[in-house]
Amino acid sequence: MLEFTHGIRSDEDEAEYQTWLRNHPHGIVVNLKAGYQNQLTKHRPHCPTISRDLASIGREEREGKLCFENRNEVERYAEEHTEFPAANLNPCGRCWNKPLSR
Ligand SMILES: [Zn+2]
Description:
This protein is α+β, with helices and mostly antiparallel strands and 102 residues long. It is built from three helices and seven strands; from the N terminus they run ββαββαββαβ. It has one domain. The strands form two sheets. The chain has a five-stranded mixed beta sheet. Strands 2-5 form a two-stranded antiparallel ribbon. The longest helix has 10 residues. Zinc ion binds next to loops.
């Protein structure tokens, strides 16, 4: 997995993040900023809300993310980080359980 707990910056780790997204089309990306109903949201790597290149949206940084290869890795992480709500992640309405579109 890759951890970007303090956010992702265009001049630091955006390239590493984008490479990971491309290389893990079936991965799970958890956004660390609480959203809907104060839950953390889980995305697929192809989701436009987390994968648009920062430069193309006119931003220099994005919120913290955890990038997991699969569900087992999410569960392993949750065992080591008891504050992580692995069983209560909000599935993104844009990408979860939707086929790859690119
Ligand atoms: Zn999504």
